[in-house]
Please model this.
Amino acid sequence: MANQVFNKLNLPPATLQLRNEATVQSKVYDVLRKKFVTLTPEEWVRQHFTSFLIGHLGYPAGLMANEVSIELNGTARRCDTVVYDRNAHPVMIVEYKAPSVAITQETFNQIVRYNMVLKVRWLIVTNGMNHYCCRIDYSPPSYNFVEQIPFYDAL
Model:
């Protein structure tokens, strides 16, 4: 069903729990939010990417959260996914776009604004086809794009 509608991504296949309802869009079970959510192209990317982090890079599902609310300059915003360390401090923000959406400087500006609040060490932007991972150092301030997304234990 969803494989016919959504593009194959540049990620390992994910086992997703899908549900069709006669009067609404297809739904996918989000293991982090523990509920069915509307299956959009961006959600397709999110579910595959979180599955990749958990199943291939050792990220504990219990230390990840989707749609994390933050306040930025008096405005409510939502980070797509936040990863936490074992002391419950945020260490990574992941921003998703649909596969048809190009990743631009504005996409990076968005995640950098979110990081003004959370101050994590890792930023990832992906549209399911292209993945960009950046490590942030705060002293002295610098950033460095890395080729491989790190295993959880290397964060």
Remarks:
- The radius of gyration is 15 Å.
- Helices lie at 2-5, 41-57, 105-118.
- The chain has a mean pLDDT of 93.
